[in-house]
Amino acid sequence: MSVDRLSIREGAACELVPAASSDEAVTQRFRLRDLINPKGRFVVEHWRNGEMIGRYEAPNLITNQGKNKLLDVMFHAATQIATWYLLLIDGAGSPTPAAGDTYAQINGTNAWDEWDDYDEATRQEWTEGASASQSITNASPVVFTISASGSVYGIALVGGGTAPATKNDAAGGGTLWNGAQFSSGTVTVADNDQLKVTYTVSA
Fold first, then answer.
1. 20 to 30 Å CA-CA from 152: which of 20, 58, 139, 188?
2. pTM for this structure?
């Protein structure tokens, strides 16, 4: 699965044009450029009967909807999303997160469904701390306690709208920030397994 990186380019330019000599005008051009390139990564520990049986990474694929939200909040006075939630992606079928996926298409026309077989009553909050050294993460892992056997493909991050914490919600104008597949492939889970998730975004 390819990693999708959001690049925000900011630049300035100036020209110094001395008076033309008898030979030719000499132009010196200076460019200043700054590049902001956020990228995200999930790290998931898979626990069973008190023992960690796997550790999986899931590189970020930022959706177009997520990119637009970031730009609108930063530069167009859009409403900030105060709380973000993690959801699990079902491994059944042929799940394929794509840049064009949206929140409104969860369990609909996105090529994947949400896995909701876990004991926690809602999607789990991503408990991020303040950013430092151009990175933001959750200091303590977010825990999903699996309630049925099956397969989990990966993870996504959602927020905003009217019910972003509700399992399988796709209404109310929410934002789907990303979708990510475990680098090890689809993970087989059993009842009472725990998936402990850390998500980090760096610029």
1. 139
2. 0.84
Bridge partner list, 132: 135
User: What are the sequence ranges of the domains in the chain?
Assistant: 38-202
167: pLDDT strictly greater than 50:
yes
Q: In whole angstroms, how far apart are CA 150 and each of 30, 118, 132, 146?
A: 58, 11, 37, 9
% the chain with pLDDT above 70? 82
Per the CB < 8 A criterion, the answer to whether 196 and 176 are in contact is: no
Secondary structure (DSSP) of 57-95:
EEE-BB-HHHHHHHHHHHHS-PPP---EEEEEEE-SS--
- Distance separating alpha carbons of residues 70 and 112, to the nearest angstrom: 24
Rounded Cα distance, 61 and 48, in Å: 28
